[in-house]
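User: Here's a protein and a ligand (flavin-adenine dinucleotide). What would the complex look like?
Assistant: Let me lay out the input and then the predicted complex.
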Amino acid sequence: MPLEQKRQAERKQNPRRRIRNFDEVTSVFTPTQAVHEAERCLGCKKPLCIHGCPVEVNVPEFIELIRQWNFDRAADVLRLTNTLPAICGRVCPQETQCERLCTLGQKGEPVAIGKLERFAAGYGSRTSATAPPQGKKVAIVGSGPAGLTAAGELAKMGYEITLYEALHKPGGVLTYGIPEFRLPQRVVDAEVEYVRQLGVDIQLNTLVGKTITIDELFVLGFEAVFIAVGAGLPQSLKVPGESLNGVYYANEYLARVNLMRAFMFPQYDTPIKRGRKVAIIGGGNVAIDAARTALRLGAANVYVVYRRGKDEMPARREEIENAEEEGVAFQLYTSPIEFVGKKGQLRGMRCIRMRLYEPDESGRSRPEAIAGSDFSISCDVAVVAIGNRPNPLLRQATSSLAATAEGTLIADEETGSTPKKGVFAGGDIVTGAATVISAMGAGKRAARAIHQFLKESN
Ligand code: FAD
Ligand code: SF4
């Protein structure tokens, strides 16, 4: 009986061993495990799991195909609605999406939908039929999950797509932010290759807004533009000493390790300070990734310093547990008030204890400093991971685009259309830092809206 069968668990590398390497922590299900897990699915007549998925993957159908050992067909079903399943299967917060709504979850443990997606994504031919050429060109700016999804969807509809990326490698946060031990670069490369095979021309090292403007793209014959430039500008703590040597913003720290392969020394000679005592400030996925990266770079002690409690941390539970297993320590209800240094080098932090008060407008408990509770933490590296905002460069270089007070671009939630004709936007640039799947959902909706716009402008 499916209800009695226990949820299958992926095998994990031993924590003591895994903090010495950057290999993926969890192994993909074996075929037998995947089939056993698929057998737990009830094949509900009204499958709520689909409604929990922002790109509406047909969950029961792909799971049923796994149950029948038809892994290639399961992968094809996934790819019908999800351009990047191998990525989603690894980093999506399924516990708050499809698995949260799974009927089995209400009576026990939900089907491990994410882990089955990760398994099936390794199969299939990775070929998709494309519609006959439409004879129209669309430009996409930014190659993160929003840009890649929109590019893939529009290419399948027969549009000629050029995707412009500022960095020397495509993938956005998937490439420069999320570490190798959670999302191997080979997995991202394979998904980018799939998008290329659909006919998408990826132009790297092109900072739109500087190298070329959006108005110039229209002059070059593009009939619509999708802006998917993410939210890559780090937020500062605004405390004294933030410019000391040894204080990093998480984006730079993680980009040095992931994009610039600092962990592959001496093959890659990317400079990075490998601290002995490392403090990470923040409580989201970015902070947990930075903490686990610091351990793997050889730190003896890593503290996550967070102003609220563990239950309030926005990071995925699974990743917090992984970090704890690996030896990351937590300094909760704590906030830095100063970085302290000697001869320009970071030596430690002055911190203050926090207390939680009534929830604020965002619905989250408001932390306030407890007077006279300050104390010191010694550290030689600190990583600030308290959030990112959109970079204003592209907006400032483009007429008729508008932004909110937080710097996010104003665009229609459903279609991504902006006040500038033919220009659409989606992903973190519109929502602020969010999730891979929400960015993909925005890319998909924008692709449909661009198709409609181009049909109407015929
Ligand atoms: P991005 O991924 O930021 O991509 C934007 C791209 O645009 C970048 O490649 C950038 O170089 C490029 N660009 C910027 N400006 C220009 C320009 N002017 N011209 C050309 N190109 C430009 N989400 C999850 O769901 N699960 C997780 O576990 C998770 N972990 C995370 C860990 C880290 C360390 C970080 C930083 C984020 C994490 N997220 C996670 C969030 C998720 O990665 C983002 O929400 C998602 O990548 C946003 O996608 P996007 O396409 O909008 O932008
Ligand atoms: Fe299967 Fe759960 Fe979806 Fe029902 S809700 S079809 S049990 S995955």
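Summary: DSSP finds 19 helices and 16 strands in the chain.
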